[in-house]
Amino acid sequence: MTCVLVLGAGGAAANGFCRALRLAGGYHLTGANINPTDLLLAECDDTHHVTDDDSLADLISRLKPDFVHAQPDEEVERLSRLRHIAGRYRTFLPYHQTILTCQDKWQSYLRWEAAGVPVPKTWLIRNSQDLAYALGGERWLRKIRGAGGAGSVATDDYGFACKWIDRHDGWGSFTAAEVLTANTVTWQSVWHKGRVIASQQRKRVTWANARNAPSGVSGSTGIGETCSDPDVETVAEAAVRAIDPNAHGLFGVDMAYDHEGNPRVTEINPGRFFTTAPEFYARAGFNMADLYVRIGRNVFTRRTTDRLRNPLPDGLQWLRGMDTRPVLVHKDDPASMYGRRELAATR
């Protein structure tokens, strides 16, 4: 039985990761979280409340887990800082500077622009003069740091934009970017020492609770659908390499299509899965979470020169709602559940 310590336990993303490992079998799941109430929702065999870096380091030293995974961005960065303590226990993280760069949307944008990776034109908004210069049309305002569409809104109104940034105390920590289309796609990938081992694309058909977000982007997928666009594969891989040619671990690339139908990179989530990816893919037949843990523990049986690129068929939809378990269907037959299939290629 492999003991996996899951940080951020009880959150939707961590629970999805745990469900994927349950489907694989052979795991004992231990959860940890700074928020004790989240632990009440954790789908783990046992849970632990941690209060700071020291208590987390102590927990890892006492438990001696076979593998440690962090799901929220804050916990990814925390585990990365503590990797010298957790080092004797398996982690599978990108390099620390890679994590810091990816979690800073402005610094990552500068890397992509310099490397010629397709991106929406973006400006750092340090003051009202920067804002006035950037607003040559409708612009997408968002915080440099944070997930879930943090602080995002689209506007071409200078007065509104000033008030929005003031409200978030955001001068110097907001960007303005050209507005692309509402068609967005993600590329979840596992890398090992600079090589892509596996990747799977998924487009967003809807955002969950979009009506409650000022921008219409809640940061949480309502309906996700498997897809396979060769341009997405090319652009996403180039985006990761532009930040780290020796990429290692998990990288989730977010993209939006421009008005000519070309994917452009908007951000990379390092060291963790997209919220919906682990359970969605596992129930469809490709258990990327299990694959990731086994590679991280050096028990992967396939040759690392092999590739798993979009192993799932197009058109599988993952339907999500508040306070309900997700449902997997095919878009051409949404009335029937899609049967879980095994892909031997993951072993």
List the helices and strands and how they pair.
Layout: E1 2-7, H1 12-24, E2 27-33, H2 36-39, E3 46-49, H3 53-63, E4 67-70, H4 73-81, H5 83-86, H6 96-102, H7 105-115, E5 122-125, H8 128-134, E6 139-143, E7 153-155, H9 158-167, E8 174-178, E9 184-192, E10 195-207, E11 221-227, H10 230-243, E12 249-257, E13 263-270, H11 277-284, H12 288-296, E14 308-309, E15 316-321, E16 324-330, E17 333-337
Helix pairs in contact: 1-11
Determine the fraction of residues in helical runs and give it as a percent range: 25-40%
Shape: globular
The largest sheet, given as strand count, sense and whether it forms a barrel, is: 9 strands, mixed
Cα distance spanning the termini: 17 Å
How many extended strands?
Answer: 17
Structural class: alpha+beta
Average per-residue pLDDT, rounded, comes to 89
Fraction in beta strands? 25-35%
Characterization of this structure:
This protein has 347 residues and is an alpha+beta fold. Helices cover 31% and strands 30% of the residues. The strands form three sheets. Strands 9, 10, 11, 12, 13, 14, 15, 16 and 17 form a nine-stranded mixed beta sheet that branches. Strands 3-2-1-4 form a four-stranded parallel beta sheet, with helices on both faces. Strands 5-8-6-7 form a four-stranded antiparallel beta sheet, with helices on both faces. Helix 1 (12-24) runs parallel beside helix 11 (277-284). The longest helix is centred in the last third of the chain and has 14 residues, at 230-243. The protein is globular and about 60 Å long. The two termini are 17 Å apart.
